[in-house]
Amino acid sequence: MSRARPGPRHSGRIELAPEAGPGSLTFESMTPADVDDVAAIEEASFPTPYTARMFHDDLRGGQPACWWVIRHDDARGDRGRAPIVAYAGYYLRRDRAHLAKIATHPAWRRRRLGEGLLLSTLLAARGQGADSVTLEVRDGNTTAQRFYVKWGFVLLRRFEGYYEDTGEDGLILAFTGLADRRTAGWLERELAGIAIVPPG
């Protein structure tokens, strides 16, 4: 497997709702210093979570891995880096990306942050040359399935008994045509229209 193209170490903004007051959300590349915070969200999000060591191994370049985080700066002037409230990661091979993880901090769920994270991640993959993105979802996780279908993913195939912990089938969903300028334009417009309200 070839090493991923490095792509931009970019920083992108995601809009907060006007009623949220001052502050900002920033989408940027994950660094080793972020791993402990990411691992804590991972532990709270998945029954079989990645370990901190797995994240560190990916960031050291052992695989064609691309990891991103979203930070929330509440504009209060606190010292230090803004806290991480979401993250996502994919593995890139040629023009295909496989979305391995996507999660938000429990306090930030149901606030459209997941939508902003997904669209930002798709655009980041496009920026690194991906034309399609695949992901796995449990057959019983109908909420996640509806979320991905809403944003253009379609069912590609089913693997019976894919998840060893429950014996559930695994569904592979795919988003295609990412290299098309019209698709990118749609993603950018939708992302600009997502207004997120931070938790109280």
From TrEMBL:
One Pfam family from the record: Acetyltransf_1
Domain N-acetyltransferase, chain residue ranges per copy: 25-178
InterPro entries reported in the protein's UniProt record: Acyl_CoA_acyltransferase, GNAT_dom, YpeA/RimI_acetyltransf
Compositional bias (Basic residues): 1-11
Top-rank taxon: Bacteria
Annotated region (Disordered), positions in chain: 1-25
Signal sequence interval, chain numbering: none
Keywords carried by this UniProt record: Acyltransferase, Transferase
Protein name: N-acetyltransferase domain-containing protein
